[in-house]
Amino acid sequence: MPATPNNVPEPSRTDPALIRNFCIIAHIDHGKSTLADRMLQLTGVVEQRQMRAQYLDRMDIERERGITIKSQAVRLPWAPTHDKGNTHILNMIDTPGHVDFTYEVSRSLAACEGTILLVDAAQGIEAQTLANLYLAMENDLTIIPVLNKIDLPAAQPEKFAEELANLVGCEPDDVLKVSAKTGLGVEALLDRVVEEIPAPVGVKDAPARAMIFDSVYDSYRGVVTYVRVVDGQLNKRERIRMMSTGATHELLEIGTNSPEMLPADGLGVGEVGYLITGVKDVRQSKVGDTVTTQQKGAEEPLGGYKDPKPMVFSGLYPLDGSDYPELREALDKLQLNDAALVYEPETSAALGFGFRVGFLGLLHLDVIRERLEREFGLALIATAPNVVYRVIMEDGTEHTVTNPSEFPEGKIHEVYEPVVRATILAPSEFIGAIMELCQARRGTLLGMDYLSEDRVEIRYTLPLAEIVFDFFDQLKSKTRGYASLDYEPTGEQSSSLVKVDILLHGDKVDAFSAITHKDQAYAYGVRLVAKLKELIPRQNFEVPVQAAIGSRVIARETIRAIRKDVLAKCYGGDISRKRKLLEKQKEGKKRMKMVGSVEVPQEAFIAVLSSDDSAGTGKGKK
Predict the structure, then answer these.
(1) Maximum separation of any 2 CA atoms in the chain, in Å
(2) DSSP letter assigned to residue 197
(3) Measured distance CA(160)–CA(420) in Å, rounded
(4) What mean pLDDT value characterizes the chain?
(5) Is the confidence at residue 423, as pLDDT, over 70?
(6) Which of 115, 102, 60 has its CA nearest to residue 340?
(7) What value does the CA radius of gyration of the chain take, rounded to a whole number of Å?
(8) Where along the chain is GTP bound (predicted)?
(9) 477 annotated binding-site participant
(10) How many CA atoms lie within 13 A of 299 on its CB side?
(11) Is 115 annotated as a binding residue?
(12) How many angstroms separate the CA atoms of 304 and 114, rounded?
């Protein structure tokens, strides 16, 4: 019979030999969260009446979109078939599958000894499956290959078991076949976890060392920190020290997630749990930091994590300028829960005070913006996303440009832009369409491999700026939804990039500037001036809207002046009377044009700068 929360052994007394730490990795929508649900039910930690689909997806956004955004750790008791006398403790982490949240996956892998590699038996191996597998191999983890959704009519378990076995280096018979929906094969999978994944290794009597792998802000209890204990043990009411900041706190509560918080006396070697110190300052708890005891603490911190590099930058501005302090506080709290988020203050002549925020991709941008609006009640404008450029001037000076308004004036020697190595997996019938799309986006073919008769892996080098907008949407439409994409940064390349400025009535409007490739500058300029002509209301004088590169105008539209009908009162009479009135009006327009300035409504800025029309992201991205 499955163990219940009431008969879980006391955490501080659990023998490390009975602990197994593992996570579930897969491509998006291959059934990780559903498999986690079955494990929660089988081990009895969630009662049947409390059970709901995607139990570990706590956020509304996750449940609405059907995607996992945050990794969730949970402690499961399990008595395996071959060893009924001993209840093992399984610490399981459910991870996201989207390329934008790879950092969440890499942190989860660092807290585990093994992983379940899950593949949909109807879809087979996809791009993110490969990316996550390589991450697991880099961490020297034990990999258990599993085929999910074998109950589907379209499932091809034999075919994909062979593909998966070739990839992992095992026999097709070693690939477990489960159905997370019906629960078929999940018990055998839990037994395999106990058999194959090694127990955590640590020194019980050494000074305590625990790695922070996640944290969250609770408005009542302050910062809740999630840790994996490597050496020694942490006990309730003792004082702890954060090794990177040197800050010391008293442990008010310590415990495990089963999956709700379950207080305990302490945590020992190899255990995963949470710490509450009552601290409200979100900067005190850094992901990747090492926690030790204040008395007789450790001298050497643990390895930590590599800091993620933001790939896409966007400006976030509050619609109401007075919300700026609330936005700063909200970003602070979100950064605690999402270590991949980076931001710095910036100002815009058009939008006022805001923040330049770095994201790992477009879905990341979309999710963060939605969380800020929902969880903190803010109304925000997000400017169009762009990447980081490195500009070298002819005099040798170097500039880093994260915003088109920072692009330097003067003689430019070279402009470098970030490039990525993109891996596309798709049915072989779409090779032509994929290559055509990649060539149009300035891609360079690196190679192509057939995974099976009808599935191909294509590798390209692409400029990041070309894929942050609608590349994925185009790829999906050209391949009828069958292609999957994964990419990783590989450095930078020199490119012919120019800054396109928009001039209204001869004045530059910084907020509308954009950096684009020389060959696409004309099309961009024509498109933007046409859009602005529609959005900017007519003035009392004629307004030229121009797109220019430096001093050279490349596109122009004219917003016609509003004309009062001065001839309305002039009925009949000589033509010279009418001409006199028209000349008088013309003089007035001329004077107005000299002193007039164009008022651009907020709606025009929002429509042009907003990333909504270009960054539509949803379930199934990459």
Answers:
(1) 113
(2) S
(3) 29
(4) 77
(5) yes
(6) 102
(7) 29
(8) 29-34, 148-151
(9) no
(10) 0
(11) no
(12) 18
What's the predicted TM-score (pTM) here?
0.69
Cβ-based burial of 587 (10 A; exposed 0-12, middle 13-18, buried ≥19): exposed
Helical residues (DSSP H) of 376-470, grouped into ranges: 431-440, 464-467
The DSSP code for 11 is G
Q: Is 31 annotated as a binding residue?
A: yes
DSSP line for 501-539: EEEETTEE-GGG-EEEEHHHHHHHHHHHHHHHHHHSPP-
337 annotated ligand binder? no
Pick the more confident residue, 177 or 481.
177
Alpha-helix runs per DSSP H in 44-146: 60-65, 102-110, 127-138
Instruction: Over range 333-342, report the average pLDDT.
Output: 76
* Token code pair at residue 566: 């001065």
Is 215 marked within a binding site? no
DSSP string covering 18-56, please?
A: GEEEEEEE-STTSSHHHHHHHHHHHHTSS-GGG--TTTT
Distance CA 211, CA 292 (A): 9
CATH 2.40.30.10 at 209-293, yes or no = yes
- Residue 11, pLDDT score: 42
Alpha carbons 564 and 79: distance in angstroms, whole number: 87
Q: Is 257 annotated as a binding residue?
A: no
- Fold classified for 390-495: Alpha-Beta Plaits (3.30.70)
Q: Is 299 helix (H, G, I), strand (E, B) or coil?
A: coil
The secondary structure of 424-438, three-state, reads EEEEHHHHHHHHHHH
Question: How far apart, in whole angstroms, are the C-alpha atoms of residue 44 and residue 189?
Answer: 16
Residue 589 annotated as binding site: no
Structure tokens at 518: 């020389």
With tokens 């280096």, the residue in question is: 169
The edge-to-edge listing of strands for the beta sheet with 380-382 is 342-348, 352-359, 312-318, 380-382
| Superfamily per CATH, domain 5-196 | P-loop containing nucleotide triphosphate hydrolases (3.40.50.300)
Length of the chain: 622
Q: What fold, for 312-385?
A: Alpha-Beta Plaits (3.30.70)
Q: What is the reported pLDDT for 481?
A: 66
- On whether the CB atoms of residues 91 and 272 are closer than 8 A, the answer is yes
What was the pLDDT predicted at 607?
63
Q: Which two tokens stand for residue 401?
A: 């440009």
Are the beta carbons of 237 and 251 closer than 8 angstroms? yes
Question: Which DSSP letter does residue 174 get?
Answer: G
6 annotated as belonging to a binding site for a ligand: no
Q: How far is CA 415 from CA 90, 142, 440, 532, in A?
A: 51, 44, 20, 28
pLDDT digits (tens, 9 = 90+) for 288-315: 778 888 887 777 777 766 667 777 778 8
Q: Kindly list the domain boundaries of the chain, sorted by start residue.
A: 5-196, 209-293, 312-385, 390-495, 498-594
Listed residue (295, 269, 265, 259) closest to 211, CA to CA: 269
Q: Comparing 209-293 with 312-385, is the CATH topology the same?
A: no
Q: Which residues pair with 135 in a beta bridge?
A: none
**Cα-flanking dihedrals φ and ψ of residue 363, to 5°?**
-65, -40
Q: Tell me the C-alpha distance between 118 and 129, whole Å.
A: 8
Q: How many CB atoms lie within 10 A of CB 102?
A: 22
478 is an annotated ligand-binding site residue: no
151 annotated binding-site participant: yes
Instruction: Report residue 559 as tokens.
Output: 């917003």
